[in-house]
Amino acid sequence: MKKIIKNIFKIFLLLLVAGIIFIAWANYSIKKDSEPFISYNIADVPEAKTGLLLGTGKLLSNGTPNAYFYNRIEAAANLYKSGKIQYIIVSGDNSTKDYNEPEDMQLALVQKGVPQDKIILDHAGFRTLDSVVRAKDIFSQTKVIIISQKFHNERAVFLARKNGMEAFGYNAADVNKYAGLKTNIREYAAKAKAYWDLLFGVEPKFGGEKIVIP
């Protein structure tokens, strides 16, 4: 019995070490591969027909404004006003009646001066993978400027390019380290999951008919 327990413990330890190595390797690889294609400087971003704004909730769980949301809105509006993009796909979660990231982003962008007819809603962007692949498969965009915080853009641009897209990232301002600690820790696992999805050919949850962007 002791021998069996010892062997089980060894297997568990090996799996734990392998998991840690995989997470570290995935994070390093994604950051390295995406680094040449993301920037905080609008001047470094090429022109493209469409920007892809990745969704997040406008409020935190405690009801206070979410800085990630408002910083992304600011970045997307600035990118549009600079003339680098002509349209913005707002892609996010709309899984319940009372939670609608795309419409919240649309309203905030309009308030920042972006014309409503230049904003395209994608209500099925439940994950970063879904948002990126749907931009290509549903909205027929093979070149996009992805808008989010740097840590998120690293993963999104990596996924987009691995799915055959010419993708670049414009980094929105981050939040302070204390406020973003939980998100940054969670991102380590998210980058590993992105690699896992890529290796196993995971596809978006929903497809649908193609939507033409003029």
TrEMBL record:
**Recorded superkingdom:** Bacteria
GO cellular component terms attached to this protein's record: plasma membrane
Xref: Pfam families: DUF218 (PF02698)
Domain DUF218 per the UniProt entry, residue ranges: 54-172
The record's InterPro entries line, in alphabetical order, gives: Cell_Envelope_Assoc (IPR051599), DUF218 (IPR003848), Rossmann-like_a/b/a_fold (IPR014729)
Q: What is this protein called?
A: SanA protein
